[in-house]
Design brief:
Length: 517
Amino acid sequence: MRSAQLGPWLLAGLIVGPVLGSGIIILPPVVLGVAGAWALPAWLVMIAVGVVFALVFGELSVLFPGDGGVSVAVGHAFGPQGRRLASLYLVVAVLFGPVAVLLTGVRYLPLGGLPPVGVACGLLVVCAGLLLRQVASLGRVALVLSSVSAGLLFAGGVATLGDAAGALWRGAGGSMATSAMPGGPMSGVMSGGLSGSMSGAEILSAFTLPAPDWAMLGHALLLLFWIVVGWEVVGNYSAEVRNPRRTIRKAVIRALAAVTAVDLAVAGGMQWLAVRGAASPVFGTSGESGALGASASVGATGTMTVTNAAGAIGGIVVPPDGVAALLTPLFGTWGGPVLGALALALCATTYLMFVGGVARLAASLGADGILPRAVGLRARTGAPAGGIGLLCGAHVVVLAAVGRGVIDVTGLVALADGFLLANALCGVLTGVRLLRGPLRWGAAILALVLGGVLAHAAWWVLGVVAGLAVWMYRVRIGNWLRVLCTVRGLRCVCDRVLPDPRRAPLHDARSVERSLK
């Protein structure tokens, strides 16, 4: 794309793709399985968080335009250590998150008995080969695929909500036909579709919220942070727009409207399908009925276990076909295959874009000595072979853990979101430090909210987040401790244990920015 050629509409389109990405396919059934009746309120909370997040990052991109994006602002606020720390959080997140993307792309395919983890490994090998060959025009392909997927899911969600409005108006639920994907987990189970009648009072009671389980709700919000990731891309295009201050602000507002509309339609449609599913005598992935729990996971067999969330009044049953159920009003029995093709292509391009971008960042950190030097190696094509090897090798290990039943898709998303939240906090705290007026207060409140959500991450994730921060600022922390160590004996201990700032290597502060260009 040529410099200074992007208008507000085209920039908004380039923003919507990374923000929606594969999360709009992964998250709806997972969050329903975790939060039950509280899934829709959790979506509303995270959509509100996304609005403030987008406005803060958009304003930072206006104040610090350039190819480096918001990382330039982070470096300005907290120095090169803060910028490298945010980069390390992103690298660690991408060790886990893309595996969930691959498994989701495979889940909607008719595998014919093949193990999903094995198919995902094959897709990983293909993607690694494409990354080493530096495939061009990948961004445009991802833009088209994400736009088509978002449009179809929005239309399906609106049609499903229309059915809900009609049922509420009539005071009774009609019948909702749905069919399983050929060869999918529901094949041969629901030949006649879901049907059942519910009175208006029963429908309203199904949406009545039970007493909140704060640990469950916090975990759901942690998972939903995936839908906020992507607004950082605004800054990477800030050097290619006409009149950045005016264009970026207009593009952010338009992208926010599109993303919010799609999220609300999909979340509301899935919530209605879950309520309607409670009226069916048959549900689950194996035709069993009456199973209760609070889980939504893809295991080694590839079937998604989605059951009623404990405590949900009226019964909340997650559609076993996931978001493919939203396409039934549009394509009938072809809804599953259509989404399967789109999901595979969208997840593959999302994997290539995220891993390709972060591999360059990892290679730059390796060249600076922050990561092992081998990570900085490059192939003859110029591709960051060391970074690609690090990330893809980690993905093979994670896929093996999934195959052994050690972790599932829900766990992978939670792990990745923990480090993505830490990365986002670096940007939000930058807004607190650099912005003025209402946005500064909004960034401060957002930092408190994100910190509360991050507190629901696994204990070892919090330990790694804190450990990386201490290691990156070890010289400054050492200076503070030396000031406190006035006793001679303690001063000697500090001199032995803590690094000497006069001997600490000074890395090029512009290295990370160069890697993003």
